[in-house]
Amino acid sequence: MEQALGLAGFAFASERQRRVLALQAFAFACAGVVAGAVTTGFLVRSPVLLDAGSSGVTRGLIVLGYCSAGAYTFWRRPRSRTGALIAGIGLLYALTSLNGSGNDLVFTIGMTVWAGFTVCLAYLYLCFPRSRPETRIEAGFLAAYGVVVTVVWTAALVFADKLPRAAAFSDCSDRCPKNAFHLVEAPSGVSSLIAHVWNAGTALALVGVAVVLLRKTRAADRLRRRAVEPLGYAFAGTALLYPVYLLVGYDHPGTKPALRAVLAVLQLSIPVALVLGQVRGRMFAATKAGALAATGADGPVTPEVVESMVRDALGDPMLVLAVPGDGPSGFVGVDGTPVTLPEPGSGRAVTPVLRQGRTVAMFVHHDALDADAAIVEGLAATSLMLLENAELVAGLRASRERIVTATENERLRLERDLHDGAQQRLMAIQIKLSLLRDAIGDGDVASKLDEIGDDATAAVDELRGLAHGIYPTVLRERGLEAALRALARTTPTQLDVAADGLGRFDPTAEAAIYFCAVEAIQNATKHGGADVSVSVSLRRGEGDAVVFAIEDDGVGFDPARPAGGIGLVSMRDRIEAIGGRLTIGSVPGRGTTIGGSVPASGSGP
Question: What is the model's pTM?
Answer without folding.
Answer: 0.61
